Each structure stands twice: as structure tokens, then as C-alpha cells.
Amino acid sequence: MRKLFVLLGGALLVFGTTGTAVASVLNWEGTNTLLLGDFPRSNKVRGGGVATINGTSSLGHINSLRLAASRGQVKGTFTQLVTDPDTINNGIAAIQYDHVAGGTGTLSPISGGASSGSTLTQNTMSLSGTVRICLVTTDCADALVLELQQMTQNGATIGVGIGGLLTVGADSNVKISIQAAPWTIKTVTISDQITTTGEVNQTTITTKLIGFAHNAASGTSDTAAPSGVVQLVTPSQVRTNLPLGSNKLVASGQTFFLHFIPEPGLLLLLGSGVAGLALLGRNRMRK
User: Tens of pLDDT along 7-40?
Assistant: First the structure.
């Protein structure tokens, strides 16, 4: 019995020390899903990393969530084909996303924000990567290029995930403007303008991007623990002088979902503790 108490005491001591050491960081895994017009939301980039949780002495309620590209990110490359023949004839054949990844930023406050209606006071986090609007053919031999990064324009900081008006192809026959916005955990509505019947009839449909933060039991407190989830969204409104599919006013945006997971070392520690208890019990039975 004494051995059992010693083993349990040692395990609890190590566990408590580990909890203190990792109190301000949490491991996460997640996805970033692209929304573009009425295309299927099938394009996701995946990844994971370590998030810094507002430097508190214990896990629980999130106030500040900091993500850094150097500590893990979601990242991927894919091509969105524009299959409408009229659009291809007009010039846009595909959109290629090359190494699109999450950036670095601090988002605050998080927990309960979706339900209470509060706004993130810290809400900017730029993306990285390259977006190519492929003209005429899907091999992107001729393309308009948008670099996803934080930039300065007329003294203001702009970018996807930050805000501001970005222009692509200003000197081209194909002109695209993107009204970007910061991140939020609220629900936002963006619009698609669908043109039908020889570009005579137009209808506008709306699309929602939904943000939230909750714990494993779907409550809006104590999110900063394994199985807690945060979903952040950044809406963009895209306008083109040529239709993208059947759209000239195009809804666009990113949905970033992250799920907090246990630290690998903690899982190993717990597994070792269970194995040790099982071995001790087996030895007692033999005696």
C-alpha cells in the first residue's frame, strides 16, 4: 500500500508541475476553409501548432489567443476551377491558391464573445501565400497575382484578415477588387450577385459565415482546455468587371476552426502512470 501511495504522489506531483508549466500554452489542430462565391466549400487546408493563452496561471477562460506562424499553422495548395464556359471565354479559367497559410496575430477577447455579442478588440491576423487568377487556361501560364500578406497602402495597413481594399489587375482587362475585413467570432453575412439569362436578370443571395467559441460541453466559458473549440471568420466582398462563374459581386471569406488537444507529453505521462499502477497491482496479486 505504501508503494501505491508513493507512486500516486509522485505522479500527481509531476502532473501538477506539468500543468503549471503549460498553463499559458495549448496545442491545437485545425482547418481553414475557403469560401468563394457559389463554389462548394470543399477546399480546406489543415495543420496545427501551439497557441499562447493570455499568460494566466491556469487553463480555463480565454481572454487573449495568440497564434504565431513560427509555432505551427494551417497550410495548403489547391486550385479552384471556374467551369462556366462563358467565364473561361471572358478570361478567368481558374483560381490557384499556392501555400496559403495562417499568419501571426493576437485575437481578444474570445470566450463568450459569440453569445454576448462582444466584438474582438484585437482582431487582425494576415494570411500568407499567393493567389493566382488564371486567365484563359487552367495552367496559370497567364495570371493575375495577389500576394497574401500584410502591406501598407496610403499609410494604412491592409490585407486579407486585416481589412482594406485590395486591387488586382488594375492595368489589365480583368480587374478585381477585394474588400477585406478583420477576424471575428460573430456571424457575418456576405452577398453574391448572380446574373442569369444573358446578363439581364440579376438576383442577390446571401451567405453566412459563423464564428463561435465553446468548451467540450458547448458552454462559452472554460474554452481553454482540451476539446475546447474556437471558430474565427474573416469575410471579404469581391467585385469583378468580368463574371466569376455567373457572379460579378462575389462572396469570399475564410473560416478558421481550431480545436484544442492534449499535450503529447501529458498523454505519455498519463499513459505511463496507468501502466505503472497496473504493474504495481500485478505484483501485489503475485504476492
Answer: 434 433 333 334 343 337 899 999 999 888 767 6
| Interstrand relation of 44-53 and 72-81 (parallel, antiparallel or unpaired) | antiparallel
* Mean pLDDT value of segment 82-91: 60
Q: At what angle do helices 264-286 and 2-21 cross, to 10 degrees?
A: 180
Q: What integer best gives the mean pLDDT of the chain?
A: 77
| Domain enclosing residue 271, as ranges | 1-22+264-287
* pTM of the model as a whole: 0.78
Using the structure block, give the residue that is written with the C-alpha cell 462556366: 84
Distance (Å, whole) CA 105 – CA 60:
21
Q: List, in order, residues 6 or more apart from 256 with CB less than 8 Å away.
A: 30, 31, 32, 74, 102, 183, 231, 232, 233, 234
Beta bridge partners of 201: 196
Query: How many domains would you assign to the chain?
Result: 2
Residues 233, 198, single domain; the answer is: yes
Q: Which residues contact 17 (CB under 8 A, 6 or more apart)?
A: none
